[in-house]
Specification:
The protein is mainly β. It is 0% helix and 60% strand.
Length: 119
């Protein structure tokens, strides 16, 4: 069993920065990927950033150059650093982790944290 808890959301002005954290607990082994998704009002949940086991990262076009995903294996935590925030970044942000045990893939989700970008 794995549990994920996000933190760090809040209200920020355009051009500002926030750092989101996702703390994992439980039986954490054989991690394939860690990722951040977001869901804006009236829209589908979409991938924001992903980091693969070997360290490779991918980003959606809308956040390239502004957001950065990273991890701390000692703390079992990964992060999303968000800079130069825009109103269109307003959404609920969810952390995600995928693991493989033998041939079975397990996917875990946090409960989400609200990010609002407004003046």
């Amino acid at each position: 069993q794995v549990q994920l808890v996000e933190s760090g959301g809040g209200l920020v002005q355009p051009g500002g920065s926030l750092r989101l954290s996702c703390e994992a607990s439980g039986n954490i082994f054989n991690i394939n990927t860690m990722a951040w998704y977001r869901q804006a009002p009236g829209k589908e949940r979409a991938l924001v950033a992903r980091i693969i086991n070997g360290g490779t990262t991918i980003y959606s076009d809308s956040v390239k150059g502004r957001f950065s995903i990273s991890r701390d294996n000692v703390k079992n935590t990964f992060y999303l650093e968000m800079n130069l925030l825009k109103p269109e970044d307003t959404a609920v942000y969810y952390c995600n982790m995928e693991t493989t045990i033998q041939t079975t893939i397990w996917t875990y989700w946090g409960r989400g944290t609200q990010v609002t970008v407004s003046s």
